[in-house]
Amino acid sequence: MNRLITLAFITAVLLLTITACTGEPEVIIVTVPVVSEIEVTATPVPTEPPTVPPQPTATTEPTVAPTKTLAPIVATQQAILALLPTRVPVTAVPQIAEDDYPALINQACGIVRDNYVRDNYNGVDWEAKCEEYTVLAESIDNQEAYWDLMAAFIHELDDNHSRFVRPDRFAAEFDLPSEGSGRPWAGMRIWPAKEDEQLLIWYVCDFGAAASASLQRGDVILAINGEPVERGEDGFDLTAINLSLYAHEDGATLTVQRGPDVEPEDIELKFGSAGGCDGWQVGLLSETPRIGYIRVPDFGGDSDTNIFNAIQQLEEDSPLDGLILDIRHNPGGNSDKDIAIFTQGEFGKVGSLRSDATQTTYRIRGPVRWNETTPLAVLIDGNSHSAADYFPAAMKLSGRATLVGMPSAGNTEGIISFNLADKSLIRLAVSTLELPDGTTFEGIGIIPDIMVPLGDWGLREAPDVQLRAAYEAVIGE
Question: CA–CA separation, 408 vs 381, rounded Å?
Fold first, then answer.
């Protein structure tokens, strides 16, 4: 039987549809039993994909819970947020007037002084900056100027994750279409990875505004509401993209290019609810050799049980010859138990890097739940964040898997949101992962063994170029 990938099948896997391939190797589709229903709260706490790194567990001995079938969900952006890890603590807010700008700067100064992950503040003389910005705040006479000043103040840390968020930017900051709860959205994910040269649509829900407009995974967005989309020196500005996309609650106009030889066209989106959005995908890429595929959309909830159940079903007839785990565009969660399915060991320390801080050993205890020998490839990209940084780090340090794709996000800093007296927020890094050799990969990411850029149209190929390379790595080609 032909051991090459059934291209139409892989396209079906990634486009969330199933296609029969006459004359090709038999394809087996496996449905992952999910152990718990997704509960969507009425008022979600704002979050973003990169949040808090997973905390080390004393032991990793997960048990298989009774399985349930995941009820179909009509996804709003609120439902998507319910899947993501959140840590926004309530902080004591002193009695400061909202227009007492020097006092607000002083409050922010103390938050950073007492909580920032590094007590050298990345080489910044923090006390001098506090004095400088307090003086500058004394000449401020309006809120807009104060917000600009506070943003510049926190930016002095030169930390990509620590930042000031003004109240009217919460929707864009936390990837919400608007500040309201459960508002309509586009039914697609635009979340540019740091390596992307073009603004790509990462996925389109089966039902929703984007699907109705026939948008597809890998389409390139050139303009939003007539304004060209431009990549900055450090990549695309997701906040600015969301502000532009959701400037009008009823819809937006996208200028889209669908291929290298296709003329750009304007697409009208009418926002609404969506269903069949990016989630768990499981199946066989080929039967001979028997290569399994698992798409892990996040490391929240019972992800370890879902992965283990998926492997058991893939191996129901015979053992796998190889497995591909796809954690591209995975926002994180806690991957400790997921790691323990494949490997074990000590992979560094987690905590603050301040001189007076106590760090915790990042240890994954055995026994390994599946095995440590079946060839394994892990797909990563610049949007594999937090726990999706930790997972490939453990796989690489232990030599358990071949990493394929692009460097992970390097988002190992745990971020906490601190409330300011004017109802704005400081998103501040408070902890990180230190590797066994004393280094960190914050801002760098885990480097794959096989570097494979998507390029301009690689995500539209069937299979996409990174998945093809992972398959070849698993079968030894």
Answer: 5
Rounded CA separation 195/128 (Å): 35
Contact 328, 384 (CB under 8 A): yes
Task: Tell me what pLDDT residue 94 has.
Answer: 56
The domains of the chain, with CATH numbers, are 7-81+277-475 (3.90.226.10), 185-272 (2.30.42.10)
69 touches 309 (CB < 8 A): no
Of the pLDDT bands very low, low, confident and very high (cuts 50, 70, 90), residue 239 is: confident
Tokens 């509960």 -> residue: 39
pLDDT of residue 230: 93
Instruction: Give the SS3 label for residue 295.
Output: strand
Question: Which one has a higher pLDDT value, 57 or 328?
Answer: 328
CB burial readout 177-200, b (16+ within 10 A) else e:
bbeeebbbbbbbbbbbbbbbebbb
What the block records as the tokens of 241 is 């993209």
Beta bridge pairs of residue 325: 294, 378
With residue 134 as reference, give the H or E element that holds it. helix 126-137
Around Cβ 399, how many Cβ atoms within 10 Å?
A: 10
Kindly state the helix (H) or strand (E) to which residue 209 belongs, with its residue range: helix 209-212
pLDDT at 373: 96
What does the pLDDT look like over 38-90, one tens digit per residue? 222 222 333 333 333 443 333 333 223 333 322 222 233 333 233 333 333 43
User: What mean pLDDT value characterizes the chain?
Assistant: 81
Q: What pTM does this model have?
A: 0.74
User: What average pLDDT does range 437-443 have in this prediction?
Assistant: 91
What 8-state DSSP symbol labels residue 439?
A: -
* CA dist., res. 97 & res. 107, Å (int): 12
What are the structure tokens assigned to 306, written together? 């879902």
The amino acid present at 269, given as its one-letter code, is L
DSSP string covering 344-363: -EEEEEEE--STT---EEEE
407: how many CB neighbours lie within 10 A of its CB? 22
